[in-house]
Amino acid sequence: QERAVVFFEVEILDAKTKDKLCFLDKVEPNATIGEIKSMFHKSHPQWYPARQSIRLDPKGKSLKDEDVLQHLPVGTTATFYFRDLGAQISWVTVFLTEYTGPLVIYLMFYFRVPFIYAPKYDFTTSKHWVVHLACMCHSFHYVKRLLETLFVHRFSHGTMPLRNIFKNCTYYWGFAAWMAYYINHPLYTPPIYGEQQIRLALIIFLFCQIGNFSIHIALRNLRPPGSKTRKIPYPTKNPFTWIFLLVSCPNYTYEVLGSWLGFTVMTQCLPVAFFTLVGFIQMTVWAKGKHRSYLKEFRDYPPLRSPILPFIL
Amino acid sequence: MASSEEDGAVEEKENNNKKKTKSALATAWLTFYNIAMTAGWLVLAIAMMRFYVQKGTHKGLYRSIARTLKFFQTFALVEVGHCAIGIVRTSVIVTGVQVCSRIFMVWFITNSIRQIQNEESVILFLVVWTMTEITRYSYYTFKLLHHLPYFIKWARYNLFIIMYPLGVVGELLTIYAALPFVRRSGMYSMRLPNKYNVSFDYYYCLIIVMLSYIPLFPQLYFHMLRQRRKVLHGEVIVEKDD
């Protein structure tokens, strides 16, 4: 005897005007929101699935692509509300663009490309060895970030609004130019405490680059390929991950406390200090948000952990 | 259990009482603040008029009111705090930008560049600021006392239409007049080489400030126009969602 399948009907209304935008009949009960988005896209080709926000309530939260129709609190005729999220761009594209900029821009200042400094300095190199070291560190940092974007990170969101790329690139590229201008300037003054200061800074920088990378690997291993699951990160055999005992987002801790603070001490350049401070503020905001969502999602979240700085912040 | 229910009710009452005391305190402070600021700017207006009537010239006027101006304009910084802690329902950023631009003019232009203190453009923006602030602070005062005469409301939401642009003209002309003196003296500037590996040129900074009026002024102006439509004509404005 055949099992009777109850098909759903789905109507999609505009969240603001309540106009009926789309009606889908004979929808499988185990259809996901992602599949419904694809069907909606067919009738409205300008709204690709990544820019659709589908919700149960016009002012409610967006439903996830993985949500299954029959598990939602809807009748056999489901009413959804649609919001256009605007043009979207993939996270990978944004990261690659925002990180390639600083890499290239810094090198332009390092090689003293014409029209930046006085013409007599064009294509000359700095006489201070710390300037060469700084260039290597800065370039290494951004190459590492690019490689991590391509091979390590597993993103939970596919896309972000298009306008973010302009905002982000202005920030990264602008600061990179501002820092690079002074570090590679013909009138650059090397650190007061000379070799000691530079050596210490380099050690901090390298230590935290390795630390930051270890955290990225640990986070990647929490999530099987292609999945968007979230789990509590724990320390692994790698000593650089033991900081998970005290901090929720140690990747940010390593980034600020180590890499950029180290770079500031190495170059003794106020714009770098400023960039470190702004980055610290931004990462603290992100860390607090992440910490809060960990606490909300996991009842057994380790109580000893702070968002970004052990016991402090 | 009856006793825990009572405790819960008592706690809720205590919380409500705390909230009422807090808002009564906030109202009392805001009323005092707005009365004080209205009085301050009135004093400024009267001092300016007296000087002009007695001396017949605007030269030296700025010097005579400089201290009072600096005091009351700087004190306005607390308004950013009001927005931040929520006792005033305005955006922190809008208030912050407006107060900061005033502080900048008073402390970093007219106070520190003495050669431009007798410019006519200074008198222009001083007059504009005085009229605007007296209207604004008396509007808030009457609103808090629940006795708002219509002409104050009218003045607050109509005078700005000419006052705002006039004020901008006065400010920009003043900064422009200050440029040659800034360049010559090299004030607030830092050159390479130095141990911080940074440089700052106040002259170019001022040029950027002048250019920033182009995007910022229309935003603030249209914000006021929208407020005006809402308050005077009861229009329901559909805000742009994010």
Automatic annotation (TrEMBL), chain A:
At the top of the EC hierarchy, this enzyme's class is: oxidoreductase
- The chain positions of domain TECR-like N-terminal read 8-84
- Provide a GO biological process annotation: very long-chain fatty acid biosynthetic process
- What positions belong to coiled-coil segments? none
TM segment ranges: 89-111, 170-188, 200-219, 240-257, 263-286
Catalytic activity from the UniProt record? a very-long-chain 2,3-saturated fatty acyl-CoA + NADP(+) = a very-long-chain (2E)-enoyl-CoA + NADPH + H(+); (2E,7Z,10Z,13Z,16Z,19Z)-docosahexaenoyl-CoA + NADPH + H(+) = (7Z,10Z,13Z,16Z,19Z)-docosapentaenoyl-CoA + NADP(+); (2E,8Z,11Z,14Z)-eicosatetraenoyl-CoA + NADPH + H(+) = (8Z,11Z,14Z)-eicosatrienoyl-CoA + NADP(+); (2E)-hexadecenoyl-CoA + NADPH + H(+) = hexadecanoyl-CoA + NADP(+)
Cellular component per GO?
A: endoplasmic reticulum membrane
Which compartments is it annotated to reside in? Answer: Endoplasmic reticulum membrane
Q: How does it sit in the membrane?
A: Multi-pass membrane protein
EC numbers, comma separated: 1.3.1.93
Which keywords appear in this protein's UniProt record, sorted alphabetically?
Acetylation, Endoplasmic reticulum, Fatty acid biosynthesis, Fatty acid metabolism, Lipid biosynthesis, Lipid metabolism, Membrane, NADP, Oxidoreductase, Phosphoprotein, Transmembrane, Transmembrane helix
Domain of life assignment: Eukaryota
* Pathway given in the UniProt record: Lipid metabolism; sphingolipid metabolism; Lipid metabolism; fatty acid biosynthesis; Sphingolipid metabolism
Q: Where is the 3-oxo-5-alpha-steroid 4-dehydrogenase C-terminal domain?
A: 159-313
Quote the function comment for this protein. Answer: Involved in both the production of very long-chain fatty acids for sphingolipid synthesis and the degradation of the sphingosine moiety in sphingolipids through the sphingosine 1-phosphate metabolic pathway. Catalyzes the last of the four reactions of the long-chain fatty acids elongation cycle. This endoplasmic reticulum-bound enzymatic process, allows the addition of 2 carbons to the chain of long- and very long-chain fatty acids/VLCFAs per cycle.
**Which family is annotated?**
Belongs to the steroid 5-alpha reductase family.
Question: What name has this protein been given in UniProt?
Answer: Very-long-chain enoyl-CoA reductase
Automatic annotation (TrEMBL), chain B:
Family label: Belongs to the very long-chain fatty acids dehydratase HACD family.
| Species per Swiss-Prot/TrEMBL record | Echeneis naucrates (Live sharksucker)
Identification of the protein by name: Very-long-chain (3R)-3-hydroxyacyl-CoA dehydratase
Instruction: Please give the function described in this protein's UniProt entry.
Output: Catalyzes the third of the four reactions of the long-chain fatty acids elongation cycle. This endoplasmic reticulum-bound enzymatic process, allows the addition of two carbons to the chain of long- and very long-chain fatty acids/VLCFAs per cycle. This enzyme catalyzes the dehydration of the 3-hydroxyacyl-CoA intermediate into trans-2,3-enoyl-CoA, within each cycle of fatty acid elongation. Thereby, it participates to the production of VLCFAs of different chain lengths that are involved in multiple biological processes as precursors of membrane lipids and lipid mediators.
E.C. code: 4.2.1.134
Any one Gene Ontology MF annotation carried by this entry is: very-long-chain (3R)-3-hydroxyacyl-CoA dehydratase activity
Q: Kindly state a single biological-process term from the GO annotations of this entry.
A: sphingolipid biosynthetic process
Q: Which reaction does it catalyse?
A: (3R)-hydroxyhexadecanoyl-CoA = (2E)-hexadecenoyl-CoA + H2O; a very-long-chain (3R)-3-hydroxyacyl-CoA = a very-long-chain (2E)-enoyl-CoA + H2O
- List the record's Gene Ontology CC terms alphabetically: endoplasmic reticulum membrane
